[in-house]
Amino acid sequence: MRRLPSLPARILRAIPMLLICAADARAQTAPPTPDPAKVHDALDKIKKLDESVNASTPALSHAKTHIPELQSLTDPSSDAGDFTARAQAIDKGLKTIDANLLTALSDRSADVQKALDAMPSCDKAELGEDVAASCTTASTDGHVRKSDLDSAKTSLTEQLNEVGPYFKTSLDGPAKELPKLDTLWSAPNDLAAADFAASVQTFKNSCDVYQNAKSFKASIYRSLKTLLKADDPTSNDADAAVIALGDKLKDETGKVNAIFVAFQKTADDNTAKVSDSTTAVAATPIASAQAASDAATAANKAVNGIAAAIAAWPDLEGSIKSCSSADTIHSAQLREAVKGLQDSNKSYARNCRL
């Protein structure tokens, strides 16, 4: 049998040292055992942070529900409907918001911050890999939640503060439309009946805004005061705008009687003109035929317009009763004027329409 060659003496002498170094290297790379007390303390603080985050969820969810709703309702360019629909929705929405929601958002944010401040450093060497990972996750979640709570409080406060200006601004539209109506209705003798009939919708729309503003104003601003813990600075301006709109509607109502009287005179004049033309045609058929035809055409056009004005009366009457508080005498005068106009139009239709 052949013998294996022996190792050099110097290598044999180095083997014990190499074994010692290898053992020392293994000893240096082995992780230290975490301090049980520190781990227990870290787990307790992680639990408290998780609890504070979870406890803030209801307030945050409540706020996130109402922020976009209010944003849509106070944005004139949104498809949330007209002023009436928006005012009703705003009033209802504000009443469903917890009176202490803004305070709750602040308190929960403070609770999360307090728990974050108490958190240890998420050091693997001190806590071990698993606990350190849980510590990092909890801290990250805590910072995100605090940011969300603070943002929700800011956004909700901003949206609540937008309600008052929106309410006040919504009254500006009718206030700008009524002067155009005033220009028409202030000149009854020059006002075409068809134009009057078309303008009734402007009065009705303005009346609807006035009625709803008057109905919801106090309730909406009362809710805002409860939620914001302060009076909304636009409250007095909104009161003044509602009163001013009501006064303008009353002013326009006072012009309607003269308009119907003028229309009745037009109807009576048309009847007389057509009757005279008919008599003239009988006397001088060739000479008077064209004039009679023109008179009848003009009269028919005017009477058609008056018929449209009469048809618009029920809506106008309803708005007048709702918004102008017309006194008994004025109301009676209006009804009498409408009856006279109806009688005149019927008389024309019965005797003169070609």
Architecture blueprint of SSEs:
Layout: H1 9-29, H2 36-55, H3 57-73, H4 83-96, H5 101-117, H6 124-127, H7 129-170, H8 172-185, H9 193-228, H10 235-253, H11 256-283, H12 285-323, H13 328-351
Helix pairs in contact: 2-5, 2-7, 3-4, 3-5, 3-7, 4-9, 5-7, 7-9, 7-10, 8-9, 8-10, 9-10, 9-12, 11-12, 11-13, 12-13
Protein model, in words:
The chain has helices at residues 9-29, 36-55, 57-73, 83-96, 101-117, 124-127, 129-170, 172-185, 193-228, 235-253, 256-283, 285-323, 328-351. It has 354 residues and is mostly helical. Among the domains are: 36-170, no CATH class; 254-351, no CATH class. The longest helix has 42 residues, at 129-170.
- Oligomerization state of this entry? single chain
Question: What is the ordering of alpha helices and beta strands?
Answer: HHHHHHHHHHHHH
Question: How many angstroms does the end-to-end distance come to?
Answer: 146 Å
Tertiary shape: rod-shaped
In angstroms, what is the radius of gyration? 42 Å
Arithmetic mean pLDDT: 82
Biggest sheet overview: none
Determine the structural class based on helices, strands and strand pairing: mainly alpha
Binned strand content: under 5%
**Tally of separate helices:** 13
Number of strands: 0
Residue share in helices? over 70%
Low-pLDDT runs: none
Characteristic terms for this protein:
354 residues
Give a quick summary of the entry.
By secondary structure, the protein is mostly helical. 83% of the residues lie in helices and 0% in strands.
